[in-house]
User: What shape does this take?
Amino acid sequence: MAPASTSRPFGPPIVIAHRGACGYLPEHSFPAKAYAHALGADFLEQDVVLTRDDVPIVFHDLILEEVTDVATLFASRGRADGHWYAIDFSYAELQTLALHDRIETGGAATWPHRFGERLPLRIHSLAEELTLVRGLNRATGKSVGVYTEVKSPAWHRAAGKDLAPRVLSVLADFGYRTAADACWLQCFDAAELARIRFELGSQLRLVQLIGENAWAEAATDYDALRTPAGLAGVARYAQGIGPWIAQIATWPSAGAAPLISSLVADAHAAGLAVHAYTFRIDQLPAHAPDADAAQRALFELAGVDGLFSDFPDVSLAFLGRRKDCP
Ligand code: CA
Assistant: This one.
């Protein structure tokens, strides 16, 4: 692997509260967002999917049962594949569900040492979340930004729904319209991002998320996107890429030094910022010795420009920016 650049063409690195401060409170709940705002995150993340009645909601999955009590409240509304889909429910119905920490099939907690309590935490719309951010920014004098993901646009289109224009419309309603606004718009689907730029005419900063082809997140060839030629193509419509951590830093074995790929340097050479996902102190990269070492590899050795973090305070502390250390 080639040595990576640690120059910072995009300024000081940012911390993006992944689904809110979801290391501490159920993902995409208002408490998780307010807590992330209080901890000092630079951006709060919104994943967005549509309801049956076309309301953009802040929710990570197409399916509901891993973070809500839908299987109990609407036992008969699952599909034949055993899943309950957000798109099969009205916004009013979804508001009767309670959010909880993520669970696996069978009910075990995905991250057993997190919040783990049951409370009436509600699913909310994108407009409501942007209202929360506006109010918190007003009350605190901060200017925390929003970092919104258009989830599975091709899947929505196959279901007869066009997600991206609805997301852009809500963002515009709250003043997020141009590259100067405190907003990034992210998507795994390269064709949809190009459409957002060229057909829908968005001037927002766009981030091309990069997964592995095996994940089947979108009909996008991520192996091709990660090459210098692919990154040059991304730079025609986007301002950044969002690769996952293993595409940047890997530890071949316990005690070994991290291997840093050329991806960050290649992206910088193409004029693209790099915001990596996802940092979790309870799910470190394989063989990474500790959280500090993982973040050092990303921020200092690779030179990423931002990190999606379930624990924004830990990432801010690493960057010397945490003000509330106990
Ligand atoms: Ca996301």
User: Anything to note?
Assistant: Residues 126-140 form the longest helix (15 residues). Residues 45, 47, 149 surround calcium ion (CB under 6 Å). Residues 1-5 have pLDDT under 50 and may be disordered. The chain has one domain: 14-61+124-318.
